[in-house]
Specification:
The chain is of the alpha/beta class. Helices cover 24% and strands 25% of the residues. A hairpin with a 5-residue loop joins strand 5 and strand 6. Bound molecules: calcium ion (CA) (3 copies). One calcium ion binds next to strand 11.
Length: 613
């Protein structure tokens, strides 16, 4: 009995000494006249049991706070009324704590939140590997000799090379995630038996932070503004499926159902993805894929928990609203429930009507990928609202044909399935990305083949996306080496391939070739929005038109290692008899249309882009 009293007394004394603390407030700011108001604020801290929440003028608390048992989180709805630097105060009988909360003025929408379209040329940059514009942020887990450590690339490096990107004809940059990733070695994910780092950005430890190796929030805003001044849009890479393994939520989740499972007890993602589009599959068949932890160590967020859903939706709106960028590339789209995406896309479009989102569904099957595009209610009764997808079903045939030299007819055969998409014109086409070995490291790849691949991506339907370094034929056969450092972007580099003088003759020729293609796409409207009409298909020859009103461009490929002469009908493209067709790539001489037909003789592995004189 005496012992019990003593123990209780100790507890009381300990608690009495502990005043409330605030560690973090998410979001840290919001803007007036938002379509979302009140804002649900998540306060993380200590000793918050029984807390009352008060806010400064310009804000109003709506309803009672919701506090978790451990006293480490408070959820509170805050109505945003007028701009200014405000405060949030939590008070318990033991004391009080205060944190800033900024109310921003109405958003300046001119030139921001632009979305993307087939008129754009996207360019994917892995921030850490592109250019080091600020060596002062290269800290302890920085080692250029280790392919799994930070190499020093940053936001300043991107700002410094905007003129280079403009010269190439890029109009939108997709940046790999800039979220704050863990500041230490990742001992959970071993690479070649050694700890790795979050240099790639896909393991967030703070959804509201900018990775300190890349710069600050102010630097990010500077980048968006500088890009916009140069006519270049910015696309953020977001992750809503999971957090990094060291996110503070993992050991202390804000709600008991914040994650699907716990660190000790969770499913592992089996990547049995086809069941997701199967109307006959029972829900339990989908559980491993939807709720399993990615790679077994990335904690899977439970978007069915309304607090998680609200947190993620606000997080997306906050990044767009506070920085002004133009589009999102969403990671691991298919592992997140469509019911959540429907709410998420609705919230994004309500606040930013022109905004566009491209989802990553890494799969070569059109039947599977097309299921995730919005614009149609699917068998589950839901329209996800997703605008675009990375066109992986077309990516593999591009590699097979132009790198490996296999049959080119696999490309039109894939395009023939376009009717399964609600909108194939907005799909993002690519010949390279950061998760696959580079084009030039495929067996059989040549510069000639890489030129053909670029000519195809920049003239077919969709929104073309380039991958940094492919314009100078960089190599890298697997995931770590495909993320190589751009030569000239880093202190001490032997040459600077960002300048013509620093490129080899072959690299310069390729760079100029891609530049000519982007210029043609900019100049010739049919290449951007013309209907794609397949005119001729043989095993190694392929011709198509991009037709718009009475204006058509005819693109003719010979992917064979011998020259090829062939003839095809072009009446469907609306070209008139007798018209003289001129090759803008100067591979073949002018050719006239006779009896509604074009007869071409193409050298081995070449392409012509024909316009009427
Ligand atoms: Ca740096
Ligand atoms: Ca960090
Ligand atoms: Ca999931």
């Amino acid at each position: 009995m005496i012992r019990t009293i003593l123990v209780n007394l100790c507890l009381v004394l300990t608690v009495a000494a502990q005043a409330p603390e605030i560690v973090k407030v998410d979001p840290p700011s919001w803007w007036v006249r938002s379509s979302l108001n009140p804002v649900r604020v998540l306060i993380r801290g200590r000793n918050l049991q029984g807390a009352r929440v008060q806010v400064g003028p310009g804000l109003r608390v709506v309803g009672p706070p919701k506090i978790n048992e451990r006293g480490t989180y408070v959820f509170i709805d805050v109505f945003v009324e007028s701009p200014g630097g405000r405060n949030i105060t939590v008070t318990t009988p033991k004391g009080s704590a205060r944190a800033p909360f900024e109310v921003l003025g109405p958003l300046n929408r001119a030139g921001s939140f632009q979305g993307f379209s087939p008129a754009d040329v996207l360019y994917l940059i892995m921030i850490d590997r592109f250019a080091d514009g600020d060596p002062s942020n290269n800290d302890g887990i920085y080692d250029r000799k280790n392919k799994f450590y930070y190499h020093g690339g940053d936001l300043q490096g991107v700002i410094d090379h905007l003129p280079y990107l403009k010269e190439l004809g890029v109009t939108a940059i997709w940046l790999t995630p800039w979220y704050d990733n863990y500041d230490r070695l990742n001992e959970i994910e071993l690479k070649e038996d050694k700890p790795s780092t979050g240099f790639h950005g896909y393991n967030p430890q703070d959804f509201y932070g900018v990775e300190e190796h890349f710069g600050t929030f102010a630097k990010l805003r500077e980048l968006v503004d500088a890009a916009h001044r140069n006519g270049i849009k910015i696309i953020q890479d977001q992750v809503m499926n999971h957090t990094g393994p060291y996110h503070p939520w993992v050991d202390d989740p804000p709600t008991p159902t914040w994650f699907n499972g716990t660190k000790a007890h969770h499913l592992k993602n089996s990547f049995q993805t086809w069941v997701l589009h199967d109307p006959r599959a029972v829900e339990s068949l989908k559980r491993e894929t939807m709720e399993g932890w990615f790679l077994d160590f990335l904690p899977d967020l439970n978007q069915h928990d309304p607090e998680v859903a609200r947190y993620l939706i606000q997080n997306t709106l906050w990044w767009i609203g506070t920085t002004g960028f133009d589009g999102i590339r969403m990671d691991t789209w298919q592992y997140v429930p469509n019911s959540f995406w429907c709410d998420w896309t609705s919230a994004v479009k309500r606040e930013f009507p022109n905004f566009r989102v491209v989802g990553e569904v890494k799969d070569g099957d059109v039947v599977h990928t097309s299921f995730f595009q919005g614009g149609r209610v699917r068998f589950d009764g839901i329209d996800s609202g997703l605008d675009s997808l990375l066109d992986f079903p077309l990516f593999y045939p591009i590699r097979h044909a132009f790198a490996e030299g296999k049959a080119i007819d696999e490309i039109p055969k894939t395009l023939a399935k376009d009717y399964l998409y609600t909108n194939p014109e907005i799909l993002v086409t690519l010949l390279g990305g950061h998760d696959d070995g580079r084009f030039m490291s495929e067996k059989g790849a040549t510069i000639a083949g890489l030129k053909l691949a670029n000519a195809f991506v920049l003239t077919t339907r969709g929104v073309p996306q380039l991958y940094y370094g492919d314009e100078i034929a960089m190599e890298g056969e697997d995931e770590p080496t495909t993320r190589g450092d751009f030569p000239g972007g880093f202190p001490g580099d032997k040459r600077n391939a960002f300048t013509a003088a620093g490129r080899t003759k072959e690299e310069q020729e390729l760079f100029e070739y891609i530049r000519r293609l982007t210029a043609l796409r900019r100049e010739l409207e049919p290449l951007r929005i013309g209907a794609l009409i397949n005119l001729y298909v043989a095993e190694q020859q392929y011709a198509y038109a991009r037709a718009l009103r009475n204006n058509a461009v005819v693109i003719v490929f010979n992917n064979d290692n011998n020259s090829a002469e062939f003839e095809f009908d072009v009446t469907r493209a609306g070209l008139r008899d007798g018209a003289l067709m001129h090759d803008r790539l100067a591979v073949i001489r002018d050719v006239a249309i006779r009896d509604g037909k074009l007869r071409v003789n193409l050298p081995k592995r070449s392409v012509a882009i024909l316009v009427s004189r």
